[in-house]
Fold this protein.
Amino acid sequence: MTGTDGALHITTSSSGLQLRGEIDAHSVTVLARHLDPLPGSSGDVVIDLSAVGFVDSSGLRVLVEAHQRAQAAMRRLVLSGSSRPVLRLLEISGLMEYLNVETGSETDRSDVGSSADSGAAGSGSADA
Amino acid sequence: MGHVAASGPQRRSRLRARLSIVSAVYLLLFIVSSVLAGLTVRSWNESVDERGTLRVMRDDVNALRLALGDQESGVIGHVSSGNGEFLERYRDGIVRETSALERLEPKADLVADAADDLDHVRATARSWRADAAEPQIDRRQRGTDVDPELVELGRVRFDEVRAALGDLAADVNAGVGDAEDRVSSVGRTAVTGMLTAFGAALACTVLAIWLFRRWVTKPLAEISGAARAITGGQLAAMPTFDTTEFGDVADAIDSMQRSLVDERDRAIRAYEGLEQSAVLALQVRSELAEERAVTPEGWSLATRLRAAHGFVAGDCYETGLIDQYTMYIVVIDVTGHGAKAALSALKAKAQLRSALRTGLSPGSALGWLAQERHDDAVDDFVTAFIAVVDVASGECRWANAGHPPALLVTDGSAHELPHTGPLIGPFDAPWSTETVAIPHGGVVVVYTDGLTEARGEDGSRLGEVRLHERLETIVGEHIGPDEIVESLIRMVDEFQVGTPTDDVTIVALARSAGTGRVPDEVAGDTETERRTTDRRRQVRSTLG
């Protein structure tokens, strides 16, 4: 099954969703519909974000709420293949360590985490 | 059914007409089957009757044979014994022969050559009686001996009779055989016809069911599906039908749907109007964007909040003084827009102000806000940036809850003040407080994501890189915070295509360039010095 809203294309599979386009205030309602209830009945819910160039705060909210529903159902919501802008949003929001983020082959999760740490450390040293 | 498939201007045809055609085809099939069945039954009856007649004829031929046989045995018996009973049998045989011939005569036409055969039998029998039988009986009754020549003649003549009888029997039997063949042939035809009619009826029924599904059941399902979609609040495109009846129903539902959507849109507009006026009132009170105190000497401040939907904002900020030495900046972004988000942001702002005034560090204030919102069961997500600045020393303690990093721009380079904890709402988390020194000539710029997420041509976003570059350029030119905010707003306007979809908030706090030495130290204000030292100690303890 596929759904389209403006610039977001959603492909559903038994294990999750494959998204293409942008998740913003216009397209987020259709994404919310695809995530409530969660796809599949058990196991990981994988949201493939590799073809998503932009996520805004409303999109982030829908993903976080789906993450919480998955946790309540003893499942895991995995954000896979996030592009650089999406990773940056997750990092800015301070959610990297709270969500299950699987990055693409170029960077893995610990890299992104340490770069965020070094940013904080950098500002700290500027203070000293 | 050619006209059903026909397209063009006469796209629709009446369902009733189609169903009438199907019924007519059914009726025609029924009539043809009935006529064929009637003809078959009649043909069957006729052939069975003929077969019966021929069987009777065969019996009559046998009776004729017996009658002639009795005549012969009667003559022979009478001549040899003189017994009258034999003569009686002879006479009786003649009577029965006549009777059998009378019965056979009218049916002779049914079998080829039967009439000739009958004539031949009658002629040979007559000749036998005249030439041999009667003379023998006559001599016997007169007491004269019957000479063997006459007996021999009788045998010869009767053999002729027997031969004629054989021909007749053979022809009649052949006729019976033919009749039986005809009966079974008609039977086969009848069975074939019945099977054909049954097959045709079955095919027509299947066709009728298929057409009924296509013309009636399927359109009904499509209409009810579309109607359900409307009930679900979606705009559903009505399926097109090629029958007028369903076309009319679809048109009716379609216009009903349009009027529903119009009504809904009117209601939404009315609601938006109310919402706008409610938030207008809030805006008049300037609560979303608030500068609560005169900026202390040595510092300058510029702020801007531009809401995306008229006056409806999920952004808000506040600047003010905690005491005469300490300034604070709070910038908040609540997920969503409209009156609800604005009220939620206002409440969060008031809570943070209270927390800061009771002496909580920025990080602890965020933790307290998160707890308060959790207790109030508020489900919005909030990002927030808090800075508490010591006016005298330029020491800035800050915390960031998932908010876009504020920027400290000094000497033409921008340093990020990134998150010290996640955004507030979904997760139970600690928010730490960090410290950074704002040097003379330094500027702290706090903004919301509406700035960097402004959408340009070809769908690109303004982004952090452009913001950093712009800030590094203009802060190097030693311009004031007003010009900085103006420049950033201009950058958004130039970049953005179409109407803004998110609020944009910018707060710029600049420390005056000074003389290269810290003015407070020049003033030698020991009171300020001591307070700053205390504060530093307190900050370290907060950070653990």
Summary: Residues 289-532 of chain B form a domain with the Phosphatase 2c; domain 1 fold (CATH 3.60.40.10). The longest helix of chain B spans residues 148-231.
